[in-house]
Design a protein that fits this description.
about 290 residues, alpha/beta, D-Maltodextrin-Binding Protein, domain 2, five-stranded mixed beta sheet, 11 helices, disordered N terminus, binds arginine
Length: about 290
């Protein structure tokens, strides 16, 4: 029934948008007339005008977001300190705080949709969410599918083991390794290690629990989630000191949604320059439990 409602709403919005577009093109026609008659031979000027007009009618997403009064962010709430379910049962974390600021700067409400990490890119492509803040590492193969914002955190893959384990980062071959499905940890374990088996979990937290229960030899996951999982394991788990990779996180949007990306980048750059991201990390490393 929700779907039906959403569909009706989308239809109403589409109609409103097409009405808006009609009005818009009339006024832009008349305003572009002096420029085109003045510089009739300037191909560059007229094609620039045409492409910016096409972009604003095609995506129109900022206008739609503002009209709906909300922006939809999809993530996977099992990746502390970046995203987790807080003590009030709601989404919390560094990426949630950043997303709240993006919504605030746009003057709209934030709606969070929790899903498996491996579904995020398809959800953006299908327009089911406006953006994703999910501690997502910028990778060339992902850049073919979505557009990324300014990078806001640097990270790396680390190895979690049982406390006191003999395992080192040099002898990961032959082990049963747990990862979160479709993450860069999964890609590393699959491509760079001759593991006995790679066990793919729906969340990093689940992989950590399986390791603590003795079902795995090691878990490969991003740095701060590794530290957070170990810190919350009652001393059962520890993180090996060496990093396996170098990575950076960015926010993802549907390919070509430059207007929204510009708005997201403006908020990110403000937060970075105000030192807010570091503040969020410190806060959620203590709060995520
Ligand atoms: N940085 C890793 C990747 O991009 C893991 C991200 C997992 N994020 C999450 N919210 N579960 O593949």
């Amino acid at each position: 029934m929700n779907l039906k409602k959403a569909f009706t709403l989308t239809l109403a919005l589409a109609m409103a948008a097409s009405l808006g577009a009609c009005g818009g093109s009339t006024s832009s026609e008349s305003s572009s007339q002096p420029a085109s008659s003045e510089a009739a031979s300037s191909e560059a000027a007229s094609s620039e005008a045409a492409s910016s007009e096409a972009a604003s009618t095609e995506t129109g997403s900022l206008a739609k977001i503002k009209e709906a009064g909300k922006i939809v962010m999809c993530t996977n709430l099992a990746f502390p300190p970046f995203e987790y379910i807080g003590s009030d049962g709601k989404g919390a974390g560094v990426d949630i705080d950043i997303s709240q600021e993006i919504a605030k700067d746009l003057g709209v409400e934030l709606e969070i949709v929790d899903m498996n990490f491996d579904l995020i890119i398809d959800s953006l492509k299908a327009g089911k969410a406006d953006f994703s803040a999910a501690g997502m590492t910028v990778k060339p193969e992902r850049l073919e599918q979505v557009d990324f914002s300014t990078e806001y955190v640097t990270s790396a893959q680390y190895v979690i083991v049982q406390a006191g384990s003999e395992i080192t980062t040099d002898n990961l071959d032959g082990l049963t390794i747990g990862v979160q499905e479709s993450t860069t940890g999964d890609i590393y374990a699959t491509d760079e290690i001759q593991a006995k088996e790679v066990m793919r979990y729906k969340s990093g937290v689940d992989a950590g629990a399986a390791l603590a229960a003795g079902k795995l030899d090691a878990v490969i996951i991003d740095q701060l989630p590794a530290e957070s999982i170990a810190a919350n394991s009652n001393g059962k788990l520890e993180v090996l000191p060496e990093a396996l990779t170098e990575e950076s996180y960015a926010i993802a949007v549907k390919k070509g949604n430059q207007e929204l990306l510009d708005a997201i980048n403006a908020t990110l750059e403000r937060l970075i320059s105000e030192g807010k991201i570091d503040e969020y990390v410190t806060k959620h490393m203590t709060e995520a439990a």
